[in-house]
Amino acid sequence: MSQADHATNKQANRSQSDNTAELRKSPMMAHLLDALEKQEDIGHYGRLTFAMIARHFLSDDEIVDLLSHQPDHNATDSRALLQQVKQRNYNPPKRERILEWQAQQDFPICPDPENPDACNVYQELNFPPDIFDQINNYHEEQVKAEEKQNS
User: Fold this and answer.
1) Furthest C-alpha separation in the chain
2) Residues 11, 75, 27, 55: is their CA dihedral positive or negative?
3) Compositionally biased, Polar residues: which spans (predicted)?
């Protein structure tokens, strides 16, 4: 391996760890990452939540690698889930949605559901600005559709 290749790999590894460190600023995401690294089954909604949030911080390959070690969930399943999330451009879920999903499975996505400040990734993480633009556009379209329906 040349020195340039080694430097590129070192930079990529630093970026990966920086992005993982950013994700770990959310106690919920740290909880999910820990479980994924231990190859614990985080359930369908845990995987969906993870993919919807992690795609803004980690590479596709990193996400697929973490998700593909789930019981009954291989790399193909993981890529399909990630592709669905990206194609539909899902925004990270709100705390309320996470708690709804958690009620439908055994694995606790939100490790501290009694804390009203827990699992609010919009407060815990620094998302790219375009996420908030997409959310605002969605809400504006909803208002326009309601106004059109009511007129």
Assistant:
1) 68
2) positive
3) 1-20
Listed as ranges, residues in the chain with pLDDT below 50 are 1-14
**Residue 59 CB contacts under 8 Å (≥ 6 apart), including other chains:** 16
**59-70 residue pLDDT tens:** 999 999 999 999
Two tokens, residue 78: 């993981």
Do the beta carbons of residue 32 and residue 109 sit within 8 Å?
A: yes
Model pTM greater than 0.70?
A: yes
The three-state secondary structure class of 73 is: strand
pLDDT score at 11: 39
Q: How many whole angstroms separate alpha carbon 146 and alpha carbon 13?
A: 48
Q: Which amino acid is at 151?
A: S
Pairwise CA distance, residues 106 & 97, whole Å: 16
The burial of 54, by beta-carbon neighbours within 10 Å (0-12 exposed, 13-18 middle, 19 or more buried), is given as buried
- Using DSSP, how many helices (H) and how many strands (E) does the chain show? 8, 0
**Any idea where the domains of the chain sit in the sequence?**
3-150
